[in-house]
Amino acid sequence: MSATLASIADHLDSLAVVGAGLFAGAALYITIGETPALQDFGLDEHWRFFPHMYKRAAISQSVFSAIGGIAAIAHGTRINGSSFDRNLWIIAGTTLIGMAPYTIFLMLPTNNTIINDNKETTLGKESQISVTQRKKILQKWAGLHLGRTITSVASFSAMVFGLSRHSSLLLGW
């Protein structure tokens, strides 16, 4: 293995923790800061703001989960002699990458409902979603996002715990 690749491989754990930390931190901020503040601001404002927030968050969250998850799995495959530590990193990485299908299959239909209704109203059409339905849809989204937050914080925490055990690990490749 070249010196450059060896250097990258030696820092996969740090890369994984940074990616997972950024993902979990952003998810936590959205869950405990942004969403409650928007709820206090008012239903219409929250509804109209959602597409703008989603467009920006989706890109960064996709990148953070991919980098963190792939680096964690790759790091886990390098660990020799400790199946606990190897499995810890692989499971944490897989869980972080699992945010993509969770988002696509569970959250995207709700996201698209909000985004498409906003597109219609931007074009001057009247919303087809009642105020009561909007509130329920945003509450459903908040619950789904809480699932992402809890899972990503758990994955990040597992990686930080894995780092605390790092000095005793035998790394291969």
UniProtKB/TrEMBL annotation:
<feature type="transmembrane region" description="Helical">
    <location>
        <begin position="88"/>
        <end position="108"/>
    </location>
</feature>
<protein>
    <recommendedName>
        <fullName>DUF1772-domain-containing protein</fullName>
    </recommendedName>
</protein>
<feature type="transmembrane region" description="Helical">
    <location>
        <begin position="12"/>
        <end position="32"/>
    </location>
</feature>
<dbReference type="Pfam" id="PF08592">
    <property type="entry name" value="Anthrone_oxy"/>
</dbReference>
<keyword id="KW-0812">Transmembrane</keyword>
<keyword id="KW-0472">Membrane</keyword>
<dbReference type="InterPro" id="IPR013901">
    <property type="entry name" value="Anthrone_oxy"/>
</dbReference>
<feature type="transmembrane region" description="Helical">
    <location>
        <begin position="57"/>
        <end position="76"/>
    </location>
</feature>
<keyword id="KW-1133">Transmembrane helix</keyword>
